[in-house]
């Protein structure tokens, strides 16, 4: 991992353009099913990039609510008060839940990326032999 991941709301960072701040917007899947509400974003402070959406799922009268992290790579549209993700409601429901004791654990984030079918951005890029001789300095 290139740096520590932290919720934007708990960091010293902010969106460069206030119009990019979509926290509070509805999150829906490609079938327009309600996934939840975008509670916050998880940022890589060192890389200065958003890595995950933190999505709140309502409970009854606010009790029993839970949160899920969805990789930012799953976002396919942001418009009209809505963030659309390619992850279905069922996939999000089956994702590992946010647990404060593992929020700083790289393995937890690797598991999340794997669950959604994405390679973590900090994973080494595979290289193949091109058959060409190496460049000389």
Q: Can you tell me the CATH topology?
A: Photosynthetic Reaction Center, Chain H, domain 2
Mind telling me the C-alpha Rg? 17 Å
Unreliable spans are none
What is the residue-averaged pLDDT? Answer: 83
Give me the strand/helix succession.
Answer: EEEEEEEHH
Please give the CATH architecture: Alpha-Beta Complex
User: How does the helix and strand content classify structurally?
Assistant: mainly beta
Question: In what range is the share of β-strand residues?
Answer: 25-35%
Quick rundown:
12% of the residues lie in helices and 31% in strands. It is mostly beta strands and 137 residues long. Strands 1, 2, 3, 4, 5, 6 and 7 form a 7-stranded mixed β-sheet that branches.
Structure description:
The protein has 137 residues and is mainly beta. It has one domain: Photosynthetic Reaction Center, subunit H, domain 2 (Photosynthetic Reaction Center, Chain H, domain 2, Alpha-Beta Complex), CATH 3.90.50. Helix content is 12%, strand content 31%. It contains 2 helices and 7 strands. It has helices spanning 89-93, 106-116, and strands spanning 5-7, 26-29, 34-44, 49-57, 66-71, 75-79, 82-85. Strands 1, 2, 3, 4, 5, 6 and 7 form a 7-stranded mixed beta sheet that branches. A hairpin with a 4-residue loop joins strand 3 (34-44) and strand 4 (49-57).
């Amino acid at each position: 991992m290139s740096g520590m991941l932290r919720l934007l709301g708990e960091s010293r960072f902010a969106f460069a353009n206030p119009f990019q701040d979509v926290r509070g917007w509805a999150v829906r899947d490609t079938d327009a099913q309600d996934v939840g509400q975008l509670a916050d974003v998880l940022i890589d402070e060192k890389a200065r990039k958003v890595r995950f959406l933190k999505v709140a799922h309502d409970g009854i009268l606010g009790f029993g609510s839970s949160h899920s992290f969805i990789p930012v790579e799953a976002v396919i549209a942001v418009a009209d008060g809505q963030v659309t993700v390619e992850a279905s409601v069922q996939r999000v429901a089956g994702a590992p839940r946010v647990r404060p004791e593992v929020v700083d654990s790289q393995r937890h984030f690797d598991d999340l990326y794997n669950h959604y079918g994405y390679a973590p951005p900090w994973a080494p890029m595979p290289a193949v032999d091109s058959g060409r001789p190496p460049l000389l300095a």
